Amino acid sequence: MPSPKAPQPPPSTLSTPELIPGLAGIPAAESSISFIDGQEGILAYRGHRIEVLAEHSTFEETTYLLWNACLPTQAELDAFKIELTAHYHLPDELLAALRALPAGGHPMAALQAMMPMLRMVSPVCNLKDPVSRHETSLRVLAAMPILIAAFERVRRGKEIIAPDPELSVAGNFLWCLNGEKPDAIEERILDCALVLHAEHTMNASTFACRVVASTETDAYTAVSGAVGTLFGPLHGGANERVLEQLEAIGGAENAQAWFQAQVAKKAKVMGMGHRVYKTKDPRARALQLLAKELFEARGTTELYATALELEKIAAEVFGARGIWPNVDFFSGIVYQKLGIPTDVFTPIFALARTAGWLAHWREQMRDNKLFRPGQIYTGVHDATWVPIEDR
Ligand code: SDX
Is residue 317 within 6 Å of ligand 1 at its C-beta? Predict the structure, then answer.
C-alpha cells in the first residue's frame, strides 16, 4: 500500500554535487605507486614503464619496487627473497581448514575465505609500525600461491605439495600446483604475467582494499575484500570468461558471426574495453608477445588463432568507440598452454595483484583517512507511520 504522496524534500541549500556513475575518473586518493595514460596506452610502476619491467624485471623485484618505491640492489633483492620464502611454510591448522572447504567451490571463493583464516594464525599487525606492516605484507604475499595451489590439489583429491624455498614465486606456484619443477620457459612466462598483473592504480579491487584498510582493520581483511572484488566478471573474472568465450566461438572461421550476434544483442565481449584505456592495453600487447613465444616453443592452439581473428574483427567495429583488448584478452590462452585450469586464472590474477594491493595498503596506512563518501538522496522525508492493521 503506497504511502500517501511523499512530501517533497526541502530545497537543498547546498548545490547538489553531480553524481558520477562508478566514480569514473574521480580521484579517491593521492598515490605514487603506479600511473596510467589511457589515451596513449601507458602503464608505469613507480615511473618504470610496464614494457621495461616485463622484459627486465621479475615478480619479486617488481614487488620490492612497488613496496619501496625504488629498485633493489642485488643484496637487497636477495634479502627480500629470503624474507618472503621464510613465510612459505603454512601452519597445519590452516591447511586443515583449507581441506575442509567445499571441494566444489570456486578457487576465488576459497582464496577469499582463507585470508581471514590466515589472520587467525598470524601475529597481530601494529598498523603504526612499518616493520610490522612489512612482516604482514610478506605473510600475505607468501601465502597466496601456496593456498591457491593447495586448494587445487585438495579439490582434485591430491596431496598438498610443500613449497620449495629455492624456487621463485612463479616457479614455486607451478611446483605446488603440478608437483613438477617448471622448465625455464614456463617459469619465466608466468613470472612475466605476474609482473604485468601486479598493479593498476585505482581499479575496483584496489579501491576496495583501500576502503577496507581505511577502517584500520588488518591487511588480511583488506586483501580478502579485494579478492572478492576481483572475482567479478567485469574485473578480474574476465580472463576465465574470455577462454570460455573463445571456446564457444569454436574456431577463427566462426568469429565474425559470433561477434555480430554479440553486438546485435548488445552483449559484452569479454576481455575488451576498459574504464581508462581507450587504446589497446599495454599489458595485452605484452601478453600477446608471451603467447606468441610460448606457442612458437610449444605449438600453437586454435584458441590463439580465434583470439587474433576476434581482435581484428572487433577493431573494425569497436575501435572508433575506444573499445580494445585489455589485460584479460590474451592471459587465459597463455595460462591454458601452461596447463593451468580455467578457474585458476583469476586466482593467478589475485596472486599477482596482491603485490599492488599491499603497496596500496601500506600507502594508506602511512596517512590514513577513513573512506566515507556521500550520496545524493532520492528518497522521501518525514514519511507517515501507519500502524500495520491500517495498511
Ligand atoms: C580489468 O580498472 C582496471 O584497471 C581493471 C583492470 C586491472 O588491471 O585492475 O585493468 C582489470 O578488470 C580489465 C577489464 C576486464 N573486464 C572485461 O573484459 C569485461 C568486458 N568489459 C566491459 O564490461 C567494460 O569494458 C568495462 C567494465 C571493463 C569498462 O566499462 P565502462 O568503462 O564501465 O563502460 P561501460 O560498461 O559503460 O561501456 C560504455 C559503452 C557501453 O555501450 P552503450 O551502453 O554506451 O551503448 O561501451 C560498451 C558498453 O556496452 N562496451 C562494450 C564493452 N565494453 C564497453 N560493449 C561490448 N563489449 C565490451 N567489452
Answer: no
Strand-pair category, 42-45 with 48-49: antiparallel
Q: How many domains does the chain have?
A: 2
- Determine whether the shortest distance from the Cβ of 326 to ligand 1 is under 6 A: yes
Q: Calculate the average pLDDT of the chain.
A: 94
The CATH number assigned to the domain holding 88 equals: 1.10.580.10
Query: What is the distance in A from the centroid of ligand 1 to the CA of 13?
Result: 37
Same domain membership, residue 163 and residue 274 = no
pLDDT at 270 over 60: yes
DSSP for residue 272: B
Give me the active site residues, please: 274, 328
Q: Are residues 138 and 155 in the same domain?
A: yes
Q: Give me the mean pLDDT over the 285-290 stretch.
A: 95
CB contact at 8 A, 303 and 243: yes
Instruction: Residue 331: give its domain's CATH number.
Output: 1.10.230.10
**Which of 227, 265, 272, 360 to mutate to test ligand 1, by most ligand atoms within 8 A of the CB atom?**
272
DSSP assignment string, 40-67: TTEEEETTEEHHHHHHH--HHHHHHHHH
The residue whose C-alpha atom lies closest to atom 3 belonging to ligand 1 is 203
> Is any atom of ligand 1 closer than 6 Å to the C-beta of 275?
yes
In the prediction, which pLDDT does 1 show? 47
Residue nearest ligand 1's atom 52 by CA: 268
> Domain check: are 291 and 225 in the same one?
no
Say what the pLDDT of residue 17 is: 76
Domain annotation covers residue 269: yes
Establish if 22 belongs to a structural domain: no
How many other β-carbons are positioned within 10 Å of the β-carbon of residue 163? 23
CA dist., res. 108 & res. 230, Å (int): 9
Per the structure, the complete domain to which residue 292 belongs is given by 238-337
